[in-house]
Amino acid sequence: MWNGDGTVEVNGFRVFYSEVDCVRRIFERHPETALNVRPKNQMVKNAYMNNILDLIDILCLAPQELTEEELRDAENTLLDLEEVGFKLDWLKTKLEELCVKKKKMDERGARMRELDGMIVEQRQVLWALETQLKNEENEAISDSVRLGFEDVV
């Protein structure tokens, strides 16, 4: 239902026209989402729906685009929404998956830096060995040269 103020009512929530499809999809796929929502004040309900949409936007980001603080804030927002009656198990699962991916990426990044450091060290060792080899080859070449008559006499 069009409200004349740029919003449309979807399942008791007033959302901007640009968000209607997203909100409808939420309720189509997860009809239990707002069944137990306690607030009756429309502005409060709208703020909660905006929080849900913000959480979804966060979940659409790549793990490397998020900080640990942003993920903690998202978890806290999710808990706040559940406290007022939203059933968001589906969103919680996705957030947990994102947190696991972020942790794995951070661990993988640390391991990659460690391996890179080891490679640099090994390259230095290899360079030193190659230098020793060249010196040995040069000495071997000079030791294997035939002496000339003048060298002997």
Structure report:
This protein is mainly α and 153 residues long. The protein has five helices and two strands. The protein has helices spanning 20-29, 42-59, 68-83, 89-143, 149-152; strands spanning 7-10, 13-16. It starts with 6 loop residues before the first strand and ends with a helix. The relative contact order is 0.08. InterPro entries: MCC. This is MATH domain and coiled-coil domain-containing protein.
* Structural class by SSE content: mainly alpha
The whole-angstrom Rg is 33 Å
- State the helix count: 5
Strand content: 5-15%
Main sheet summary? 2 strands, antiparallel
| Overall mean pLDDT | 91
Number of strands: 2
Ends apart, CA distance between termini? 114 Å
This entry's quaternary arrangement is: single chain
**Roughly what percent helix?**
55-70%
Shape, principal axes of CA atoms: rod-shaped
The arrangement of helices and strands along the chain is EEHHHHH
